[in-house]
Amino acid sequence: MTKPDKRVAVLSPIAWRTPPRQYGAWETVASNITEGLVARGWDVTLFASRDSVTRAHLHAVVDKGYEEDSAVDPKVAEYLHISEAFERAAEFDLIHSHYDFMALTYTRLVKTPVLTTIHGFSSAKIMPVYQKYRDGYFVSISDSDRAAGLNYLATVYNGIDLSLYPLQEPGGDDLIFLGRIHPDKGVHLAIEVARLSGMRLIIAGIIQDEAYFREQVRPHLDDQNILYIGPVGVPGKNELFARARALLQLNTIPERFGLVLVEANAAGVPVVAMDLGSCREVIKDGQTGFLVDNVTEAVRALGRISEIDRRACRSRVRQYFSIDTMVEGYERVYSTIFDREAKRRP
Fold first, then answer.
1. For the segment 289-307, what is each residue's pLDDT rounded down to a tens digit?
2. With bands split at pLDDT 50, 70 and 90, how would you rate the model's confidence at 167?
3. HSE (CB half, 13 Å, CA atoms) of 45?
4. Cβ neighbours of 288 (radius 10 Å)
5. Is residue 316 over pLDDT 90?
6. Per-residue model confidence (pLDDT) at position 109
7. Helix or strand or coil: residue 195?
8. How far is the C-alpha of 120 from the C-alpha of 143, rounded, in Å?
9. Which DSSP symbol is given to 160?
10. d(CA 193, CA 199)
11. What pLDDT is attached to residue 11?
12. Both 52 and 120 in a single domain?
């Protein structure tokens, strides 16, 4: 492993603060990587919104994330933010980008190597950018979420701060859903599972599709059996984990990683997840939850939740999805990049 004597810039998204107050998976991961690197002696500069919280050097050109300040134009903020990092590229030995396809368009304009963590492909329409820059350095967050032809150096699973999510024993009787209120996340399926199982469901998260919420979620809310409590931060998540029998993650499309699955398991909460995308990599079927193919199987799985050892759930997170494990993975990737760059430029 390369000794941490290099200067690394971490380019975080600026939809939300880094780390986010509530929702913001990409900002969460960028924060965890930054803090993990700093703890291991790396010289890190975090490019994020000015209200971000970090032990690294913070560099900002916008005060708040554009999702948190309606006065901020998203595109103006994004391009001021991205260009700032690349205009200072010569100050760093590596730029570690979490900014999707947009930052790729700057990578050939600088000599500093750029590593892009791909947090997911939002649309087929963005793929021409990835194909144009396919020879760059890429990391996937799951083996399942990869695109053909890109120069992947590794898969590095997202890691969380386990101290934020204490083990909750013995747990409660409720079903919980945590995530975006969007058809992709299958909130309507979670509601159906709750109805068929006779268990209460508590839904938490930002409403990303108003029509979907209005038509397929709101009609089922009754403040008794099906509740929606809005977005929650870490304290709110822990309150839900303490009363949870299981977390439902019934995606209708392949999951890219599923940070909330790891957070729930860290607290000892078993997960019932649709067997799509990365869920098979994150959830150990029969040990930290159950993988299912439909609502009927999900209801049946709830009858087996008592088979899951909550301490085993947390133990698996500590082994595979901690900040230390994640940062060690990125250190190996950094070493590969530095070695290749040294050979390229004697």
1. 999 999 999 999 999 999 9
2. very high
3. 18
4. 26
5. yes
6. 97
7. helix
8. 12
9. B
10. 8
11. 98
12. yes
Q: Which residue, among 32, 329, 49, 299, has the nearest Cα to 190 in the 3D structure?
A: 299
Residue 331, both tokens: 């250190």
Do 276 and 294 belong together in one domain? Answer: yes
Residues 225 and 283 occupy one common structural domain: yes
pTM score: 0.93
Q: Give Cα 215 to chain centroid, integer Å.
A: 27
The mean pLDDT of 268-297, rounded to a whole number, is: 98
Rounded CA separation 5/39 (Å): 13
Element containing residue 104 per DSSP (H, E): none
What whole-number distance in Å separates Cα of residue 346 and Cα of residue 258? 41
Domain identity same for 330 and 307: no
Q: How many domains does the chain have?
A: 2
H or E segment at 199?
Answer: none
Would you state the structure tokens that stand for residue 133, as one six-digit string?
A: 């820059």
Helical ranges in the chain per DSSP H: 25-39, 74-87, 127-132, 187-197, 210-212, 234-242, 259-266, 279-282, 295-302, 310-320, 323-344
Q: Is 43 found in the same domain as 108?
A: yes
- 2 occurs within a structural domain: no
Is there a single domain that holds both residue 143 and residue 167? no
In a domain, 29, yes or no: yes
Q: How far apart are CA 147 and CA 247, in angstroms?
A: 29
Q: What percent of the chain has pLDDT over 90?
A: 94
Full residue range of the structural domain in which residue 313 is found: 162-320
In our burial notation (b when 16+ CB lie closer than 10 A, e otherwise), range 245-260 reads: bbbbbbbeebbbbbbb
Assess whether 145 and 279 both reside in one domain.
Answer: no
What CATH number corresponds to the domain at position 196?
3.40.50.2000
Do 144 and 178 sit in the same domain of this protein? no
Over residues 255-283, mean pLDDT: 97
pLDDT, position 3: 53
Nearest Cα neighbor of 162 from 230, 96, 238, 48 is 238
Give dist(CA 191, CA 210) in Å, integer.
Answer: 17
Tokens matching residue 283: 């959830």
